[in-house]
Write a structure and sequence with these properties.
The chain is an alpha/beta fold. Helices cover 40% and strands 16% of the residues. The strands form 2 sheets. A 5-stranded mixed sheet has the order 2-1-3-10-4, sandwiched between helices. Strands 7-6-8-5-9 form a 5-stranded mixed sheet, sandwiched between helices.
């Protein structure tokens, strides 16, 4: 009997030693931008099957700070944000592209009807961020130069364009559509130029030690894409309002000309273009290998 008791005790001890600690929740930070729709819907509709939390932030700076301090495991950020974070020691990898479309708009009384019309004109962007890259790329394609105006506040850019304080700006949806309804002139969009600089990033730790949850994140993301394409926005707009989206989001989604896409890759040529642009802007000093800072297999597209 004593031998049996000792053996049983050893089994308990060895089993306990071999057990793993519970996996931590995978935390993803969002902001009220169109690119966040799939993960918000996946979270709220129960499309994730593992322990995943979607944490809303109202400003990219707050979300980025949370990533740098280790409070979140994943976030949406353009490539020109990802590379400086990596250079500063934040151990993350780019894991997919996002659904995005940024519009170049002209002020109501500018008389501008094409990209060439911005030659020598004032365009409001946030320097050294994605909006400037979009404008720089469009301007270069037409062989023009423009005067950059640094107008950080969203409301100041919104009202400034409508009041003709500057001739143009680059804005995401649905805010761009709201400006068009109030008289702004649509000139071009990032999708028609094939510009893809937005991305989703996850920490290397989560990709290594919680990879199943990241894979589940993308399974839920793609299910949410199907849901968004098949469902009228009125059925979930109340969810979006909880995350800081305006009421106008319903009309914008229902009137979209294109469908939302599954998670994919950031093309290597666009990555290289953004890296060189980032170096020119003083955002980064190093060259980065596309394969070294990306992990697209986890999203299921490769």
């Amino acid at each position: 009997m004593k031998k049996i008791g000792i053996i049983a005790l050893l089994v308990v001890i060895l089993t306990g030693c071999g057990s793993k600690e519970p996996t931590k929740p995978l935390k993803f930070g969002t902001i009220p931008a169109e690119a966040s729709l799939p993960m918000i819907i996946a979270y709220e509709k129960g499309f994730f099957t593992t322990d995943i939390e979607v944490i809303p932030f109202q400003a990219p700076t707050d979300r980025n700070a949370a990533a740098q301090s280790g409070q979140i495991d994943g976030l949406i950020a353009d490539v020109m944000t990802a590379l400086p974070m990596i250079e500063s020691g934040v151990d993350v990898k780019i894991t997919s592209d996002i659904n995005e479309d940024f519009k170049l708009l002209a002020s109501p009384n500018s008389g501008i009807t094409s990209i060439k019309g911005f030659d020598g004109k004032h365009v409001a962007v946030i320097p050294k961020f994605f909006l400037q890259w979009v404008m720089d790329t469009m301007a270069e394609s037409e062989g023009i130069s423009y005067e950059m105006m640094n107008v950080p506040a969203f409301s100041a850019r919104f009202e400034g364009l409508l009041n003709d304080q500057f001739e143009g700006l680059v804005f995401p949806e649905p805010q761009a559509g709201m400006l068009i309804e109030k008289g702004a002139i649509l000139i071009a969009g990032s999708q028609e130029f094939g510009l893809k600089g937005g991305s989703i990033m996850f920490t290397t730790d989560s990709l290594t030690n919680n990879r199943a949850a990241v894979e589940d994140f993308y399974n839920g993301y793609n299910k949410a894409v199907d849901y968004l394409n098949e469902t009228k926005a009125g059925e979930y707009v109340d969810i979006l309002e909880k995350y800081g989206f305006p009421q106008e989001m319903e009309a914008y989604i229902d009137n979209r000309a294109t469908k939302y896409q599954y998670a994919g890759v950031v093309p290597v040529d666009q990555f290289d273009n953004i890296m060189k642009w980032s170096q020119k802007q003083g955002l980064t000093t190093q060259d980065y290998s596309y394969d070294a800072v990306t992990d697209f297999k986890v999203n299921g597209s490769k």
